[in-house]
Specification:
12 helices
Length: 367
């Protein structure tokens, strides 16, 4: 049976309440946040770097509580989405090996699978809106429930460092590999005149253009903004997160009219590739919550624009985005020699459920 927004919300509420009930007073102080609509500056503050995301970490919980955290995380994800997130948490151990177990940012462990945070906002399952946020290095999940239904699932960020790791038998672990390969195959399949419009710049930005800005606009995000203020902000904190300036920055900057090539100009095979690419993002969440079925309508797929920057050769630094009504997807794989991927899905109209929350409060106030 297909999930509905209400069924998913019920599972979330039950999992969240079970976790909260397991906490002592000190844990609950960190775990519980204000109801959505109050204290929004914190609820809508999000990160994908290994910084303080706000909430209760695995380190401050018992193993049985770890399991309850993951049960809540799983309630907001598809099976494939949960498997991917669980893999990314464990990838911190692989990254430690890649860096020779030597990176030291002044805390007990730098690459730390215990440094993932969960915070619940409001009262799960109650009559008022509530939500939850789970995040740490390369994971940021944000949910809002209004009137008993899942109202928002974005921003939804997943990243992988390394993006590709060797496995036994010559296999390769690539948790986000499909999102890279489908996009590259699509842009390489474009006829020359379309490719010239799709590729905005020969150089890829160092990071996603929108960074962790709570609102989607063309503001330049600085490296320092990707970290909660504290002692572990990296070097070059005052420089643009994308590493681009002047005309290069303008070439890839967001604009009200999407850049690149629209789905309307793709052939039938390319349109199927585009929808499959969308699925690697929109299918992170359960059926009935994912907006992917929307793109079965030709007009919806027509409006999705593909833009690219950097090399189209596998293994080389590159960036792409998909932009359309109520959609922004960004991908970059530039750092660590093109072996460090960032992939975010956002809804420009209702990230964090702002519009749904406003409508709920307006309706409630009028009663």
């Amino acid at each position: 049976m297909t999930d509905t927004g209400r069924e998913v919300a019920d599972r979330m509420a039950e999992a969240a309440l079970t976790w909260l009930d397991s906490l002592d007073d000190d844990q609950r102080t960190l775990a519980a946040g204000p109801s959505p609509g109050t204290g929004e500056a914190e609820r809508t503050r999000w990160f994908y770097t290994p910084t303080d995301h706000g909430g209760l970490t695995f380190h401050r919980q018992r193993p049985a509580q770890h399991r309850l955290v993951l049960r809540l995380v799983a309630s907001g994800l598809s099976e494939a989405g949960y498997t991917t997130v669980a893999t990314l948490l464990g990838l911190e151990n692989v990254l430690d090996l890649v860096e020779g177990f030597s990176v030291n940012w002044g805390r007990e462990r730098t690459r730390d699978p215990g440094m993932y945070y969960l915070r619940v906002f409001g009262e799960p399952g109650g009559p008022r809106p509530w939500g939850w946020r789970f995040g740490g290095h390369h994971v940021s999940l944000n949910y809002l429930v209004v009137d008993g239904r899942v109202a928002a699932t974005t921003p939804c960020f997943l990243g992988a460092d390394p993006a590709a790791s060797p496995l036994l038998g010559g296999a390769t672990l690539r948790p986000l590999g499909a999102a890279e390969d489908l996009a590259r195959d699509l842009v390489r399949s474009l006829r020359p005149e379309l490719a010239a419009r799709a590729v905005l710049l020969s150089q890829a930005p160092d990071d996603i253009v929108t960074g962790n800005d709570p609102r989607i606009d063309d503001r330049v995000i600085l490296r320092s903004e990707l970290w909660r203020p504290g002692p572990h902000t990296p070097d070059r904190a005052g420089s643009p997160a994308t590493g681009l300036h002047g005309a290069d920055r303008e070439a890839v900057a967001l604009s009200p009219s999407p850049k690149g090539v629209p789905g309307a100009e793709l052939d039938a095979t390319q349109r199927e590739q585009l929808r499959a690419l969308l699925g690697t993002y929109l299918d992170r969440v359960p059926d009935g919550v994912s907006p992917l079925p929307r793109y079965e309508e030709p007009a919806a797929l027509d409006a999705v624009h593909l833009a690219w920057a950097g090399s189209t050769t596998a293994g080389e630094p590159h960036y792409y985005r998909l932009q359309g009504p109520r959609l922004l997807v960004e991908w970059t794989n530039v750092q660590r020699g093109g072996n460090h991927a960032h992939a975010v899905w956002r809804d420009p109209e209702t990230d964090f459920g702002g519009d749904v929350l406003a409508a709920h409060h307006a309706s409630h106030h009028q009663r």
